[in-house]
Write a structure and sequence with these properties.
This protein is an alpha/beta fold. 38% of the residues lie in helices and 22% in strands. It has two domains: 71 residues, Orthogonal Bundle (Helix Hairpins), CATH 1.10.287; 69 residues, Chitinase A, domain 3 (Roll). It has three helices and seven strands, in the order E-H-H-E-E-E-E-H-E-E. The longest helix is centred in the first third of the chain and has 30 residues.
């Protein structure tokens, strides 16, 4: 039985998280600690906004580092399938039936890689759409129960 805390990542997602962790440890945290030290050497820290800001930044950086480390401690890197069926790592173009000309393209990834930033959104294979289209192929029409409870149909336009 799989560990419930098991995280699934693509190799690219794993590499991005390692790079982020390295940047946080090697660049951002030392800078935050330097700012914190400088601010603490100034007047009374109980009324020092610079100190409070530096402390908040340090705490946020440490929290993100802990989050990444926890995720990487229990990760399985999934290789993209060479099948034409949608699976982890697939790039999928689809359109909802009611708006067939509005084609959306997403990459199916693990929960630790979900992002709406950048050129292409990354959605979790455990999301409603990710779950519904898993194993499907180009041309399939799929029913999806959205997070808000609505049911929608979508057509898979392309799979890479």
């Amino acid at each position: 039985m799989a560990d419930q805390n098991q995280q699934f990542l693509t190799q690219a997602g794993y590499d991005r998280l390692l790079a982020e962790l390295s940047e946080l440890r090697d660049e951002k945290l030392p800078e935050a600690l330097r700012r914190l030290k400088e601010a603490s050497e100034q007047w009374d820290i109980s009324e020092n906004a610079e100190y409070d800001d530096a402390l908040s930044v340090r705490d946020l950086l440490e929290a993100r580092m802990n989050e990444i480390e926890k995720l990487l401690d229990n990760v399985e890197i999934i290789k993209k399938s060479k099948s034409s069926a949608i699976n982890f790592g697939s790039v999928v173009s689809f359109a909802f039936v009611e708006t067939p000309k509005d084609v959306q393209t997403v990459e199916i990834v693990g929960t630790g890689e979900v992002s709406m930033d950048g050129e292409m959104p990354h959605i979790s294979f455990q999301s409603p759409i990710g779950t519904a289209i898993r194993g499907k192929k180009k041309g399939d029409v799929v029913r999806v129960r959205m997070i808000n409870g609505d049911r929608k149909e979508l057509t898979i336009v392309d799979v890479k």
